[in-house]
Amino acid sequence: MPSSDPTTLRARHTLEFPGGYTRTTGPVIGRFLTELRDGRVVGVRTAAGRTLVPPLEYDPDTGDAVTEEFVEVGPAGTVESWAWVNTPRKGHPLDRPFAWALIRLDGADTALVHAVDAGDVKAMRPGLRVRPRWRAERTGHITDIESFVPEVTRIVSEVRVEYSLRPGLALARFLQGVAEGVLIGCRCGGCHKVYVPYRLSCPECGVPITEEVVVPDTGTVTTFAINNLPDPRAPEVPFVSAYIQLDGTDIPMIALVGGIAAHEVRQGMRVRAVWVPEEERTTSMSNIKWFAPTGEPDVEL
Ligand SMILES: [Zn+2]
Questions:
Q1: Which of 271, 185, 178 is nearest to 224 (CA)?
Q2: How far apart, in Å, are the Cα atoms of 20 and each of 124, 138, 190, 236?
Q3: How far apart are CA 143 and CA 254, in angstroms?
Q4: Shortest CA distance to 145 belongs to which of 56, 44, 35, 52?
Q5: Residue 175 Cα, ligand 1 centroid: separation in angstroms?
Q6: 196 CA to centre of ligand 1 in angstroms
Q7: ChsH2 rubredoxin-like zinc ribbon domain: from which residue to which, for each copy (predicted)?
């Protein structure tokens, strides 16, 4: 392109070797590229014992020739620094935003430059763990590694906690009853309210409770919730958990409702406990499979 300054002539030249420019690699780089073709990354040891990746023919620190010892490194490594490329150009390894990064592969003492396909600049940070994404067809070129990708550091896993409960005196008494197929409640001597499960003092008047009463296993649904997430205690999804006020008691207890489609459960519905067979009973609430409709007319709440 001619310059506007008439005393200086300038022209832009492009040096191109259509079809490729072949040069010999030398034994060190040649070994590196050959290993890449086979899906391995190697470095070369210097006389001082450092591992150069990519390998060089001379130790940059001393200028001495390197040893003939090659060591496999990585292939995973750690990002030391990077530059984010928002608009990839022709010839870039990826056609979407990526990072040029200095990556120190595990076992190497120097870092190599390569692309990191992190998806978002926010994913880049010093110390980011990455590993190579290899091309299926490899030719012995640095681009045999298409790019590096972040290692998977987070997975979604199911959590289930099992624990055993040491019941207090009152709950122990209640569960003892449950083991025998009986619901044990108590009556406050002050306000005469009946509570189930059994408790040792009245939440209303605070006085100690001494009178034990056996309450029926029938009751009325006061409120309920349809649950769409699985629960180890529930037989299926969706399932219904409900507050059930047992007959003759003054506060409801929470329990599963079954034997009816979830959407048919309603407030005021009459229910009865469905007990597991006697031989399967333990000292736990799982002795009651759930509460099922009795078929009686609904109760006005
Ligand atoms: Zn009371």
A1: 271
A2: 34, 17, 99, 66
A3: 63
A4: 35
A5: 22
A6: 13
A7: 176-208
DSSP, collapsed to helix, strand or coil, labels residue 9 as coil
CA–centroid distance, 190 to ligand 1, in Å, is: 5
For residue 108, how far is its CA from the centre of ligand 1 (angstroms)?
75
Ligand 1 centroid–CA 169 distance in Å is 19
With tokens 């906690």, the residue in question is 161
Task: Judge residue 106's burial from the number of C-beta atoms within 10 Å of its C-beta, 0-12 exposed, 13-18 middle, 19 or more buried.
Answer: middle
CA 212 / ligand 1 centre spacing (Å): 13
**CA-to-CA distance for 79 and 103, rounded, in angstroms?**
5
The string over 220-256, giving b where at least 16 C-beta atoms fall within 10 Å of a residue's C-beta and e elsewhere, is bbbebeeeeeeeeebeeeebbbbbbbbeebbbbbebb
CA of residue 209 to ligand 1 center, whole Å: 8
Residue pLDDT tens, the chain, 301 long: 444 454 455 655 555 544 445 556 677 888 888 888 989 999 999 988 999 988 888 888 888 888 888 999 988 999 998 889 999 888 888 899 999 999 999 999 989 889 999 988 888 988 999 999 998 888 888 888 999 999 876 556 666 666 565 666 778 888 889 999 999 999 999 999 999 988 888 888 888 888 999 999 999 999 999 988 887 777 788 889 999 999 999 989 999 999 999 999 999 999 999 999 999 988 888 899 999 999 999 999 8
> What Rg, from alpha-carbon coordinates, does the chain have?
38
| 192 CA to centre of ligand 1 in angstroms | 6
Peptide bond into 54 cis (omega under 30): yes
- Bridge partner residues of 201 (DSSP): 208
